[in-house]
Amino acid sequence: MRKFVLLTGFEPFAGDIVNPSMEATRCLQGKTFELNGDEVVLQAVAIPTEFHRSIEILQQAIEDIHPEIVICVGQAGGRMHMTPEKIAINLDDARIPDNAGQQPIDRPIVENGPTAYWSSLPVKAMVQAMRDAGIPSSVSYSAGTYVCNHLFYGLMHLLATQYPHIRGGGFVHIPFLPEQTVQRSEPSMSLEMIVQGLEICARTAMAEKKDIFLVTGTEQ
Question: Self-association or partners: how does it assemble (predicted)?
């Protein structure tokens, strides 16, 4: 049987000409692997860095692809690790406008929606698998309040209300690419390592039906 993992990556924003999430997911478009006799196909979709429209494009991709797993990916400049996100909150609070010029402040993503949603991906197992492959990785407990969190929350709300048959969904933040840090004093990660990490995330999400016990908590 053929099964699908939907990967999404954002368009560049805030003056950058590249977004590592789009570049890395593009590299995985159409890649396949075997799991328990099934063929798993990775499908990549570009998402606009825009409030609301990002969720609309994601929902259309879900309708088109019928994935078993959905992993949304976004850039987190300043982070040193690949960071699967644990929780999405029902809040838009944009420090800068999105690519459509929208800058919502202190607004709910879904009016009267739950305060937060947990990821339904095995985030700790994903972190451990990436670490085993030599990829810096850790669990994140804040996806921010910009379009990444907006899409993450929107995804989880869709899975809770319209697509309960989809087995898992969540979000992974990734560092800058090296070329993005020429004029910045920020950490970066090679595209090759990010691509490898995302493939590991997809494989782990498909293979693990529940998460592992792993100490990943933070003090701040």
Answer: Homotetramer.
**Is 72:143 a contact under the CB 8 Å cutoff?**
no
pTM metric for this prediction: 0.98
Q: Does position 220 have pLDDT exceeding 80, yes or no?
A: no
With the C-alpha atoms ordered 19, 200, 40, 85, is the resulting torsion angle positive or negative? negative
Tokens (6 digits) for 158: 């869709």
Domains of the chain (ranges plus CATH)?
2-207 (3.40.630.20)
- Annotated catalytic residue: which of 148, 157, 199, 201? 148
The token pair at 103 is: 């800058």
Out of 81, 157, 173, 199, which one is annotated catalytic? 173
Catalytic residue of the set 27, 72, 85, 157? 85
Tell me if residue 173 is catalytic.
yes
> Smallest Cα–Cα separation from 162: which of 84, 93, 62?
62
| CB half-sphere exposure, 196, CA atoms < 13 A | 14
- The pLDDT tens digits for 97-151 are 999 999 999 999 999 999 999 999 999 999 999 999 999 999 999 999 999 999 9
The candidate with the shortest Cα–Cα distance to 203, out of 126, 118, 120, is 126
| 85 catalytic per annotation | yes
